[in-house]
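## retry 2 of 3
previous attempt timed out at serialization; input unchanged, resubmitting
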Amino acid sequence: AKEAAARGGQSSAPLWMIAALIITGFDEVMWLLRNPVTLLLIIGFGLFLRAVYQNLDVDTAMAMGVVPGLIFLGTKVVPTAIKILKKLVDEGGSGNKAPTPAVASGSAGAGA
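## retry succeeded, writing output
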């Protein structure tokens, strides 16, 4: 493959292919921009998957080998996802509790 690339003189995709990808992908980008709820759901799901990946020890699991590593990760994905969701619920629930201000009796508003 390296020899063929050296003979071709180009190491990247042809310009017409890049232009075709941009033109054909424009419709999907516009659909996402016109449907912001879908875009937010995709972003949220991506962030959730990133958090799951960061909490899993993928490097150690893959050091065992591909199949044993995938089996090991498969047993850890659901508990890790539940742990992340519980953490989100706990942080979200504690952020909404604002202290109520104490109202002083007999101050302003008492008729004179």
